[in-house]
Amino acid sequence: MRPYVLKTWLLSLLLALVADLGFAQSKIKVACVGNSITEGYGLKDGRTYPVQLQALLGDTYEVQNYGVSGRTLLKQGDRPYWKEAKYQQVLQWQPNIVVIKLGTNDSKPQNWQHKTEFKKDYVAFVKSFKKLPSHPKVYICKPMPAYRTNFSINPEIIKNEIIPLIEAVAKKTHVQVIDLYTPMLGHDDLAPDGIHPTSEGDAILAQEVYKAIK
């Protein structure tokens, strides 16, 4: 191969590699923060709502699942998300979009005794993401319904106390609320244990999050 042909070929290859690298770096990073519903408890096919959200958003987005089963938003809860390694991981990942779906486990009696701290803790949680150098857009979700009391989760507390507080947090922090409660009403057939959705239920959650992002 002649020297100038070789140089041209190498230059073309270098430009192609740089273009590929630039495309990879330009992906919009979406962090799904939550509890077992986000993590995908009970799903055998792995089609969690973050997985289905990735399919809806397409290749220009990178969706990561930071759900941890049983975790609370409350710092004084029995298993605070604040203390999890995944919380530090999501902060270090520097996402462009953060979708928070917490509150279900906070309705448990041992956790809701600290309910006066819920709004303050949630505001602090949102701010911990908003102050990141990546300046992500933060969404907070109304939890899907609990169709019956199970795992000590209280359906009425979610509906009547936690959801209004989430709306108040959104107003205070100027973030958008994604309503995952209303679209799941009447879909108790999609949550066999009354709490955790099937992949069909997760498809509804993914669609609502997708509509908010897009």
UniProtKB/TrEMBL annotation:
InterPro entries assigned to the protein according to its UniProt record, in alphabetical order: Ester_Hydrolysis_Enzymes, SGNH_hydro, SGNH_hydro_sf
Record-linked Pfam families: Lipase_GDSL_2
Domain SGNH hydrolase-type esterase, chain residue ranges per copy: 32-203
Membrane spanning residue stretches: none
Full protein name: SGNH hydrolase-type esterase domain-containing protein
